[in-house]
Amino acid sequence: MNLQFGDIQETALVTLAIRASETSRPSPHIRDEKAKEIIDTLDVDVSKYDPFLSHEGVVARTIMFADTLRGLIVQYPDALCVNLGCRFDDKFSQVDNGQIEWFDVDLPDQIAVRRKVYNDRLRCTMLNGDALDGAWTAQLPKDRSANIIVMEGVLEYFTKEQTATVTDDGVRHIISNSAILSGSKTGRFPW
After folding, report:
1. What's the total number of domains in the chain?
2. Which of 59, 70, 82, 150 is at 20 to 30 A from 103, Cα to Cα?
């Protein structure tokens, strides 16, 4: 498989390569067979994306995000979940309870690359969307009792003003009763 990456898409390879590498270990802390499959078939050298400290950090963050998501989904079993800035991540497979409705959202060029390795599935849909422009939220269903917004490894790339735009404008468009899960903290926003 030969995928072409721009600068933003190339950052997506970091966590993908680390999740694949960890899956290949004799006693992995996380398993992501899809990440391994993608990395095994890519026509790129990913060794530069897996330095030791980054590896351990990504593994720890993956475990913490999955545990926190599972806890939120237990509280809100029919939640609308949005993975904003999804890259090649497949959190849906890690946490699906058979009831949630999941949307993987990223910039159009990243979604185009993602569609080469993932398909939309029952209750899991990919959407083109910019975190700084909430227009894509009009495509989301409005009938869920709670919303979970995942932004793993997204806000770190934004300025303070851009972060405010995402959390104030973008999330407010989604609907009320949202929980946001980002790299720095989890919050509930009852708009």
Report:
1. 1
2. 59
Task: Flag whether 2 is in a domain.
Answer: no
Residue 149 lies in a domain: yes
The pLDDT tens digits of the residues spanning 138-162 come to 898 888 878 898 888 787 778 888 8
- Per the CB < 8 A criterion, the answer to whether 151 and 183 are in contact is yes
Q: Please give the residue range of the domain that contains residue 160.
A: 7-189
pLDDT grade for 44, boundaries at 50, 70 and 90:
low
Query: Which residues are paired to 105 by β-bridges?
Result: 84, 127
User: Is residue 27 a part of any domain in this protein?
Assistant: yes
Number of H helices, E strands in the chain: 7, 6
From CA 110, how far away is CA 6, in angstroms rounded?
A: 9
Q: Residue 13 maps to which CATH number? A: 3.40.50.150
152 Cα distance to chain centroid: 6
Q: Where are the beta strands (DSSP E) in the chain?
A: 80-84, 101-106, 124-128, 147-151, 178-182, 186-189
**Do the domain assignments include residue 1?**
no
